[in-house]
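[stage:ingest] chain + small molecule (S-adenosylmethionine)
[stage:ingest] validated
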Amino acid sequence: MQDPHQEFFDLVASEWDLMFTSEDLERLSHIVDKLGIEKDMNVIDLGCGTGILFDLIRRKVGLSGSVTGVDFSLQMVLKAHRNFPFSNVNCIDGDVIALPLTSNYFDMGVAFSAFPYFSDKQQAVDEVHRVLKPGARFFIIHLQSSKELSDIHHKIGGVVANDTLPPADQLTTLLSNSKFTDILIDDQPGHYLASATAVKD
Ligand SMILES: C[S@@+](CC[C@H](N)C(=O)[O-])C[C@H]1O[C@@H](n2cnc3c(N)ncnc32)[C@H](O)[C@@H]1O
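[stage:predict] done
[stage:export] tokens:
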């Protein structure tokens, strides 16, 4: 059965880029600056949409690194391809709960404004862990607190009405179950940043 989010995001894809204000882009840029992205890194962007993070990341990793976006809305992926036709940017039409990607490849994972929509969060986190190299860090990023995000989703209603960021203790359990450690969660008005390190035996 198709996840109803797929159709929802397909329908909004053509107008998606208009949602971001220059202030949003400025704040995002500051956050991405602090993630520790370095030249040559391969970074995966989960639920990448139209690729709002691609330019910020691809400039940091350079031509010998890469950014790979994954999104299950085909319309978002097609727009991302049109927006960022660069050799170090890949965008894949796929579901985060079954990533069509090799294990132990990525140096960092990011999910900007996407985690609440993943229908099976444990499976998504398991998959992120699988594709990350040992010691790689995973970041969940929002420009709102978890409470602000829930309020926005309630107002929008429909398929996103109940999409929330898990409370800190539940997110910690999800990440720990998938063998992430060093879990940090910063949840405050106008900002949400959770991060964790992939540990492998
Ligand atoms: C709110 S949008 C954010 C897109 C982009 N990160 C941005 O901030 O512009 C959430 C995205 O997550 C994608 N998404 C939701 N669940 C997904 C899943 N299970 N697998 C892949 N993508 C998913 C949606 O298709 C949508 O494009």
